[in-house]
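Students often ask why inverse folding is considered easier than folding. One informal answer: many sequences map to the same fold, so there is more than one right answer. In these notes we will look at a single instance of the problem. The structure comes first.
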């Protein structure tokens, strides 16, 4: 499904070249649930962006669904993302001038789908926000905004759903609702999930976790020694083999 081979991302920063990611090799199977953990600045968000074709590797090959993302031009890459990839950000990233319904409807419209209003409404119903369809993001709580963001990311039934600290701005109850929604997409539609998280509970629900440090994948033993929280530690320690409760398929 996803295959990274010796991938690096080096970007020009103020003080010269920044080695954001180095020598990342990684395979993710279809239907897998993968957690990315690691300290702030270790490259988690950048890796997520590479997987989704939102950022281009400066060396190495990123293959997703059998296609070499590095060989695609911008148009092809944009089409690929729209068809196959859904993204949920920590800070929701809803369009403020659009209602909840319009936000969820946008990917369908861009894809030229039919019955976009009805499908967007069904998706909002499914996340318990049917009654909020006409509300603007500023009229919704943080938890509600993130539910709209998940509905928007899932409405196209993407093959891959990428989420960057999706529960990071939410309290425990709202975080759990979002978590359940994401794993529900995995269970019901086989969506491959890759989640960046600091939340040990969320990491432990993933079938596998990978720890990053300074732009590199940590060997499992070192990840365990350095990880901050108990659940993340246990999960990272098992890296390749751990099967968490309810995680993956
Ligand atoms: N566009 C960029 N230009 C230069 N450096 C960047 C850029 N994006 C990220 N970085 C640097 O790359 C490192 C990893 O960033 P990031 O992927 O956001 O980490 P994380 O999500 O783990 O906190 C950080 O040191 C950050 O400052
Ligand atoms: Mg980040």
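Output (designed amino acids):
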């Amino acid at each position: 499904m996803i295959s990274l081979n010796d991938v690096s991302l080096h970007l020009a920063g103020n003080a010269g070249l920044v080695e954001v990611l180095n020598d990342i090799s990684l395979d993710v199977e279809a239907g897998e649930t993968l957690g990315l953990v690691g300290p702030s600045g270790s490259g988690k968000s950048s890796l997520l962006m590479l997987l989704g074709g939102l950022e281009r590797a400066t060396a190495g090959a990123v293959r997703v669904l059998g296609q070499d993302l590095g060989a695609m031009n911008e148009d092809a890459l944009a089409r690929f993302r729209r068809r196959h990839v859904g993204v949920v950000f920590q800070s929701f990233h809803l369009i403020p001038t659009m209602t909840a319904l319009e936000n969820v409807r946008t990917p369908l419209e861009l894809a030229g789908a039919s019955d976009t209003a009805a499908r967007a409404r069904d998706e909002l119903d499914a996340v318990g926000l049917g009654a909020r369809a006409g509300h603007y993001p500023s009229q919704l709580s943080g938890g509600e905004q993130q539910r709209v963001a998940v509905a928007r990311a899932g409405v196209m039934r993407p093959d891959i759903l990428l989420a960057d600290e999706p529960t990071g701005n939410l309290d425990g109850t709202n975080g759990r609702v979002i978590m359940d929604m994401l794993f529900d997409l995995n269970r019901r539609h086989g969506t491959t999930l890759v989640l960046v998280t600091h939340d040990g509970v969320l990491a432990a629900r993933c079938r596998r976790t990978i720890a990053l440090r300074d732009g590199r994948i940590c060997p499992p033993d070192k990840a365990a020694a350095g990880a901050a929280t108990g659940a993340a530690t246990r999960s990272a320690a098992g890296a390749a083999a751990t099967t968490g409760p309810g995680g993956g398929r």
